[in-house]
Write a structure and sequence with these properties.
This protein has 183 residues and is mostly helical. It is built from 9 helices and 2 strands; from the N terminus they run αββαααααααα. A hairpin with a 6-residue loop joins strand 1 and strand 2. The chain is globular, with a radius of gyration of 16 Å. The two termini are 12 Å apart.
């Protein structure tokens, strides 16, 4: 086991570290909430810093704690806390056009937490996590909002590819830098 001060925590959740892990998961869910408020409105889905937060949390905390953090974030919003983009909260957001992206958060965070060697492999993992978000958001718009596949792609994926690619690259470099410093 290594120290929390180096952003390294045990992947296994045991009783000795339950309080530390709870604090880390809560803090990470709050980081996602803060990242949600850094938003540029688009017609259907806003551009936010949430993907960057998810990638960073996944890469630093590992798959389990990252997925727990993302799940807690969703529960906070479902409970009425204004943690979603543009201070939204509640059930309306969880059935709205962004819901598919939100439901994909735990999976994306888990994917981002997969351990791989090197910055290029890490970048690939980060892109896979972003792809999980896109698949969740796109499929929700097609199935629940009855957009055509091409309309869903044009409104909720294509406008965000460049920005999310940059977020993935920055997150990959940061995570690998943190991992090298603690090893």
């Amino acid at each position: 086991m290594t120290s929390v001060s180096n952003l390294v925590v045990p992947e296994r959740l045991d009783s000795r570290s339950m309080a530390v892990n709870t604090g880390i998961v809560l803090g990470a869910s709050l980081l996602i909430a803060v990242a949600a408020q850094i938003a540029i409105p688009f017609p259907l889905v806003p551009l936010t810093m949430q993907p960057f937060a998810l990638l960073l949390i996944g890469g630093v905390l590992g798959p389990r704690r990252a997925a727990l953090s993302a799940t807690l974030y969703l529960l906070e919003g479902a409970a009425g806390l204004p943690v979603f983009a543009e201070m939204h909260a509640g059930a309306a957001t969880l059935i709205g056009p962004t819901a598919g992206f939100l439901y994909a958060f735990p999976l994306a965070a888990m994917v981002a937490g997969v351990r791989v060697p090197g910055v290029w492999s890490r970048f690939g993992v980060m892109l896979a996590a972003v792809a999980a978000l896109y698949i969740g958001g796109w499929s929700w718009l097609v199935s629940a909002w009855h957009l055509s596949p091409s309309a869903a792609l044009a409104s909720a994926v294509t406008p965000f590819i460049a920005a999310d690619g940059v977020k993935a690259a920055i997150a990959a470099v940061l995570v690998e830098t943190i991992r090298r410093q603690r090893d």
